[in-house]
Every structure is written in C-alpha cells, then in structure tokens.
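User: Let's play a game. I give you a shape written as tokens, and you guess the letters that built it. Ready? Here's round one.
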C-alpha cells in the first residue's frame, strides 16, 4: 500500500459577534408571495416565517482571497486590529495524486550478451521527473512509481565531463567502469556526453512563443502565478535580436502579445493574465505554431514554450493526436518545450511525450528556484540545440560480458535497425547539456541474474578474438541544420573490468542517484540497498542541488519505513 501522505489542513477561525435583523424582515407576505406559497389573499392561513437575513458584507479593509469565505477575514502584520477575526497561517495540504496521469514503463529487463549483444536508445535530457518527485517528497508523500524515470534523476545533475575542444564534434564521450555499490558481483559502465557551451554573443536569434494555459485549473498559486514568475525570468535573459510572442488559451485561444524584444512589455503582458474557463489546449497549440511560422527566423531558434498542467479538456485532448500534431510541425523547424506546473490534475504523461516528439525538452517547475535554474542558469541548454537525433548503440563483447541491463531510458529504447535510419527521430542535445547512461553488467564467468542455460554455445571466435574490448560504442547525431547523421565510434577497453574499483567522486554520486531512482521504482535487483547507504555513497557535497538530493533521500527513507510499518 502506497503511503497516502501526511495530511494537514488550513485552519481559519472567525469570531463573529452576530448579525442584526434586516429592516422589514418581519413584514406580512405580499399577494404575489402568498400565491407562490399557495396561501389565499384573505390571510386565512398562518403567516409564513420571515426570510433569513442576508449575510453581512465583509469589512472594506479585508481582502478576500480565492478559496476563503468572507466569514474568515485575513488579518496580518503586527498591531493589526483583530476584532473582526483571528488569522492562523495556512499550511500546505498534500493532494491525492489519483487524478494525475503518468505513463510508466516496466523496469528494463536483463539481456544475455551472447543472444542480445546490442542495446540501442535515444538520449534524454529531460529533468522533469526529478523535480516532480521532489514535489511529492516535499508534501510528505512517496512519488508514484510510474512518475519516476531514473535517467531524468541522473541527468538533473552536472558531472565533470571534459568540454569539447571544437564545435566540429558537438560533444565529448566519456566511459568508465566501477564495482556496483549494490551488487559486488556486477559492474557499472558509465557513458557520459557533454555538449559545447554557447557564449551569449554566439547565440543565434530566437523566435519564442510563450503558450500559456489560463484555464480555470491554473488558478492556484503553484500554477499561473508561478508561470508568470518563470517566464518573466526568461524575458530578462533574452537579447535585442530575440522576439517573444504570447499566446494564451482557456475555452478559446488568442494572441495577447505581438512579437517584441522589450522585457518590460513581456512582463506587463504576463502580469495581466488571469485564470478562468475550460482548457482548449490543442487550439492553443495550433495558434502558437501559426504565430511561430509567421515570425520564423532562418538559421535561428524557433521554439514554443508550453506552460500548463496538461489538463486539456476541450477539443483534441488525446495524447496520440497531439503527438501527431507536433511531429508534423517539428519537420518545419519549430520545436516544442513543455514546462509542467501544479498538482492534483497534472498530466505528466502528455507533457513529457509531446516534448519528446516535438524535438524539445520537458521540465517540471515546482518553485521559483527551479524556474531560475531551468530558464535562467540553463537557458542555453533549454533553448539552443547543438545536436539533433542523438542515438547511442552499445554492442557488448560476450567474451567479456555475460549479462547486462540499462538503468532507465525505458521509454527511449530503439530497435537495432533504427540506429542507422536517419528518418527515425531521437533526442536532441542543447548547448552545455550533459547526458549520462549507466549499464549494470555481469563480467563473463561471474554470477548473474539469469542462471546458465543448458545448451549455451561457446562464444564465437570473433568475440574471443577481441577479448581486449569490453564493448563497442557508436553514436549518431545530426547538426542543427543537417539532414544526414554523423557517426562516432569508440571501443571500451576490457582492462577497465580488471582494474575496476568502487566508484568515487562524480561517478559515486551518479551511482547514488541511480540507486535512489531504482529504489523509488521498487527495483527488485537493488538487494535492499538502503537510504543510509545511498547517502554514504553520495558523499559530502558542497553544491546546493546535491545537498538537497541527500535531504530528499532521508525523507524518502523515512516514508518508506512508515509504509513498511503500515503494511
């Protein structure tokens, strides 16, 4: 049984002295009132009771916030007169995630290297799953298992990968091997990519369309008000050559700001937005694409930033239909980034998938600090693509590896034949982006998850002859304006298996994050790796975000113990 959460309540106590009766409330009913009540005009029956007096209006100095009645006036500040009521500060109420929608996948299976030596997947630079999991833990709840994607937790953090020496190859490739912390019989193989940084002066001009959901479901403080704050921060990061348009949608869609590079105009337009009505998200997307096409910048960035809780309920709302729409538009050079907000009715399944198919990225914004991280500090990664359709293919040498499994990337898996097919879409890498992938592998002759088969054949001579290679890695990518992919190939030395030691430094922290993600997902192959061991593996950290991770591991550990005790 999943932990329902620690439920607290907002309490507002009003002390009301009483209400005077309304003048004339005891008058005799009129003829029309008598007719309406079935009484005769000759007063033959008993008189009807007087109507109740209307509620008194709120005091003129009291501001009634949404969700609070006039009987609960807001009093604040030292020395405030409290004759009208008493103010008790509100606290956050956890929301049942039952109405939230996720598209979880089964944990990646184990593969026999001899029969399935090749693993192929698309890169993923999304980070939304981490911020969303943090939101649940902050509310005293474990995140739903379907909401956790381990690769997005790992890729939320930055690691010490080398910077590319030139832009001829847009990213570096790093590989290393260590003993698996939760299973000494296996090894972790890490593949790390890092894109080149893009100085501000070298950024191409951007044509951005802010597509903002202003429907009634966006009225809470963690939705539209946070959207305004997030996009206002981005407005301050843009240059004179950049253009921003704002499209909104509720029951219908409309253009509320013509293209401009003036941050003051952008912020003023955002400030005027208010929430109300139903959610015609597809109509808003169509209008946003039309505006983006009308202001298209050749050689520049043409991107829509959709800010919503994903609760589309008018017009096209089927995720597959929305995917087909964004796939048609991405071929024209207009990409889509989705920014998720709020809780309770959050449709993460749609948000993540349309961003993937729209050649963009997906982030979840749970605070102003996260907004600053995604749209301020990491703006170049969010907006400026340096490599498209990036695919990774790993071929394991059966003479060195008997079994393996990929940690995460379950919804990014590709068929082996998709790797060389340039028509197959894959993930994009932005300026400064990093991508980390971890494989857990069983050295040949070691104890694996799958018992030996009776009729296994000996390794083929070709594999035995390349015993010096642990694996062979291939990467395909396209330049931002290219249509033909380029290939990077490199072997992973077999000596890394023999010299492998427990992970240290950055590798240890990446392994700790992977262990946390797999534990939240209920991975049965974690061998009871506890939160305390995850914290020890992560080590002492100076970075704020890494320190926060360690605190979250502690919170999750406590919730898991409570859940176990409840069972």
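Assistant: Ready! My guess for every position:
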């Amino acid at each position: 049984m999943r932990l329902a959460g620690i439920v607290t309540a907002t309490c507002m106590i009003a002390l009301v002295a009483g209400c005077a009766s309304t003048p004339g409330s005891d008058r005799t009913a009129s003829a029309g009132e008598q007719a309406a009540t079935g009484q005769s005009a000759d007063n033959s029956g008993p008189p009807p009771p007087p109507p109740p007096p209307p509620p008194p209006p709120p005091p003129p100095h009291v501001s009634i916030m949404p969700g609070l009645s006039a009987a609960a006036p807001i009093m604040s500040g030292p020395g405030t007169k409290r004759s009208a009521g008493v103010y008790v500060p509100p606290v956050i109420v956890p929301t049942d995630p039952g109405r939230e929608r996720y598209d979880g996948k089964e944990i990646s299976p184990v593969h026999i290297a001899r029969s399935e030596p090749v693993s192929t997947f698309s890169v993923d630079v999304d980070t939304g799953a981490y911020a969303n999991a943090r939101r649940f833990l902050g509310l005293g709840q474990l995140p739903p298992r379907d909401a956790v994607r381990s690769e997005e937790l790992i890729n939320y953090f930055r690691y010490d990968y080398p910077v590319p020496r030139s832009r001829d190859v847009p990213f570096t490739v790093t590989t290393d091997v260590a003993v698996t912390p939760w299973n000494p019989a296996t090894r972790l193989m890490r593949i790390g990519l890092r894109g080149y940084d893009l100085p501000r002066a070298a950024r191409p001009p951007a044509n951005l369309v802010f597509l903002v959901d202003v429907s009634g479901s966006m009225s809470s403080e963690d939705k539209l008000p946070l959207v305004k704050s997030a996009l206002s921060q981005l407005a301050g990061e843009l240059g004179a050559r950049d253009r921003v348009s704002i499209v909104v949608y509720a029951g219908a869609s409309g253009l509320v700001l013509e293209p401009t590079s003036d941050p003051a105009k952008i912020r003023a337009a955002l400030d005027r937005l208010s929430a109300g009505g139903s959610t015609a998200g597809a109509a808003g997307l169509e209008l946003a694409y039309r505006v983006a096409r009308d202001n298209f910048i050749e050689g520049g960035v043409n991107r829509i930033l959709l800010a919503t809780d994903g609760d589309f309920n008018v017009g096209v709302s089927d995720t597959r239909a929305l995917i087909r729409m964004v796939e048609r538009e991405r071929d024209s050079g207009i990409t889509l980034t989705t920014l998720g907000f709020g809780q309770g009715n959050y449709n993460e399944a749609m948000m993540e998938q349309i961003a993937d198919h729209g050649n963009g990225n997906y982030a979840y914004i749970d605070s102003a600090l996260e907004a600053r991280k995604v749209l301020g500090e990491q703006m170049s990664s969010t907006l400026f693509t340096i490599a498209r359709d990036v695919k990774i293919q790993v071929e394991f040498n059966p003479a060195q590896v008997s079994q393996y499994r990929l940690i995460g990337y379950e919804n990014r898996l590709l068929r082996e034949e998709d790797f060389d097919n340039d028509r197959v879409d894959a993930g994009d890498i932005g300026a400064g982006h990093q991508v980390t992938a971890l494989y857990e592998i069983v050295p040949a002759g070691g104890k694996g998850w799958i018992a030996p088969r009776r009729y296994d054949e000996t390794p083929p001579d070709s594999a035995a002859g390349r015993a010096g290679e642990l694996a062979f890695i291939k990467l395909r990518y396209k330049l931002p304006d290219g249509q033909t992919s380029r290939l990077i190939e490199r072997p992973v030395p077999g000596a890394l298996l023999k010299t492998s030691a427990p992970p240290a430094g950055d590798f240890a922290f990446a392994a700790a994050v992977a262990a946390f993600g797999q534990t939240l997902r209920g991975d049965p192959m974690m061998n009871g790796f506890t939160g305390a061991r995850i914290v020890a593996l992560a080590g002492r950290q100076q970075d704020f975000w890494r320190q926060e991770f360690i605190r979250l591991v502690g919170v999750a550990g406590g919730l898991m113990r409570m859940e176990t005790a409840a069972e």
